[in-house]
Amino acid sequence: MKNFKSISTILLVAALMASCGGKDKKGMQNTDETPLVQVQSVYAEAVDETSDYAATVEAFKTNNIMSNTGNRIKRILVDVGSHVSAGQAVVILDNITSVNQESAIAGQRAQVEGQRAQVEGQRATVANQDAALASQEAALKTDEINIARQKKDLDRAKELVRIGGGTQQTVDQLQAAYDASLEALKARKRALEASKASLQASRTSLEASHTSYGASQTSLGASQRQMQTVQENTTLRSPISGVVSARNYDAGDLPGGPILTIQQLNPLKVVVSVNEEEFPKIRTGMPVTVTLDVLPGETFTGTVHLIHPEIDQTTRTFKVEVTIGNGGGRISAGMFARVKFNYGTVNHIVVPDKAIVKMQGSGIRYVFVLEPNGTVRYVEVKLGKRLTDRYEVLSGLSNGDKVVIAGQSRLTDGKQVKVQNK
Fold first, then answer.
1. Which residue has the higher pLDDT, 3 or 410?
2. pLDDT tens-digit readout, 75-94
3. Of 4, 67, 97, 387, which has the fewest Cβ atoms less than 10 A away?
């Protein structure tokens, strides 16, 4: 009997424990079905609108010093690291070509002077022939007048003889004088035609000589210009102020490429590939912040110097050249630079970083927004830049939205939640 009571007691206790266990399990299931979350209201605030890019510092200008004459190097006046000024002589080449050309030009110059004298002499001859021809023409006119008068006298004498008032002897004398004058007039006309032909020949010869003289002058001018080029390529000068960054030959070498490379290192430039959506924002002359990894903690101010107008169809970027002052010479070409463009401020929603959830296997970011009915809504967001422990949101949220900042792991779109106070 005693044993039966003990067994009954044990069964009763087990039943009570089972009953209590069932109630606790049911209560946990209720808790699992309504997740606890924490939320925070988000608002728009002024955010610096900036973009950051990495690039390499380059020389503002680079010039390769080379010659196109084929002369050997006589002397190189500078070395790598030398500072040079614009117009400074940096390389001297052999001047054999220059000497040969000087001799040839001297011969051309003498030829031109001889042709000039010939043209001047011919021009004087033509002038004299012009004057002589004019004199001949004047004499011919005088002879024609005299012959006309003699013809009248002869006709009058013949008329007197006919009417018995004159003598045949007078007629014969006047006829003889008239015939002689007529022959003399014909001779003068032939001489005049010969003078005209001679003058025309002289003019033709003068024109030919003048053409030849002009051609010789042109040839001399071309030779002199070529000589100037040779002289310029005998003494090579730097077109810019800068530093010699490379020396590729020595004295005595026959150069086949750049002898020296000179770089302008003040200012320097950074060529940045900027995203195409920022094309309307960037303008020439705008200030830019530049930092260098080799000079930590220091900030330099650059200026947008040049904006390339074409957008690369592959990368969807365009080139922007930023200049940096380098008066102290502390920055060198080849350094790694970080460039920050600042476009002012813009009002955007800012959310805590712990509200942002990344969809696995994609670049999609999203948040859960608490609705007035106690459910949450799935919202994809487009993020801007990170602000320490917050993110700028470019699209997807509105001012005053309540976003879930804790408990997102069990949430789905439309899920009923319970808000837990912090």
1. 410
2. 999 999 999 999 999 999 98
3. 4
pTM, two decimal places: 0.57
Which contacts of 116-125 are long-range, i.e. CB under 8 A and separated by 24 or more positions?
Answer: 116/213, 118/209, 118/213, 119/206, 119/209, 119/210, 119/213, 122/202, 122/205, 122/206, 122/209, 123/206, 125/202, 125/206
Tens digit of each residue's pLDDT (9 = 90 or more) over 314-327: 999 999 999 999 98
Q: Which amino acid is at 6?
A: S
CA angle (380 as vertex; 374, 384 as ends), nearest 5: 120
Express each pLDDT in 166-214 by its tens digit.
888 888 898 898 899 889 988 988 998 998 899 899 999 989 998 998 9
Using alpha carbons, select from 339, 422, 351 the residue that is nearest to residue 387.
351
Q: How far is CA 414 from the centre of its chain?
A: 59
Nearest to 57 by CA among 312, 278, 291: 291
Q: Which helix (H) or strand (E) holds 95?
A: none
With residue 382 as reference, give the H or E element that holds it.
strand 376-387
Q: Of 331, 249, 321, nearest to 282 (Cα)? A: 321
Residues 6+ apart with CB under 8 A from 115: 209, 212, 213, 216
Residue 17 is predicted with a pLDDT of: 40
The DSSP symbol for 354 reads G
Ordered by where they begin, the domains of the chain are 97-232 (1.10.287), 264-344 (2.40.30.170)
> What distance separates the 2 farthest-apart alpha carbons in the chain?
219
CA distances from 220 to 114, 118, 163, 227, 286 (A): 13, 17, 82, 10, 53
DSSP 335: -
